[in-house]
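Why do we care about 3D structure at all? Because function follows from shape, and shape follows, mostly, from sequence. That is the central idea of this module. The next example makes it concrete: a single protein chain, its amino acid sequence, and then its structure expressed as tokens.
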Amino acid sequence: MRSTTLPHNTFVATSWNQPELTGDVTGLGVVRVLEAVRHFCPTARFYQASSSEMFGRRRSRRKVDHAIPPPKSYAVAKVLALCDDHYRESYGLYCCNGICFNHESRGAA
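And the structure:
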């Protein structure tokens, strides 16, 4: 079984006006899915789609090992969703995380 999670709230007004909801859906939603995988289907493969928002508004090229200073509640929640490392190391689950730089590709308008 494979699980890909894309729970998130990217509507800017909502993320600013309802930061608790954003953290609950975008951050804790991943924790809930990982807990379900751990308890009910530990052989599942889990992929978490993250966001370049975690790095803030850096103008230079970003790398995975750059510091993560999230500027918005959405970005903070995405950093929380990086908990897949803990589940991989502590429980032996197959978890990985991909950081999407969707607004920076050459094809982006």
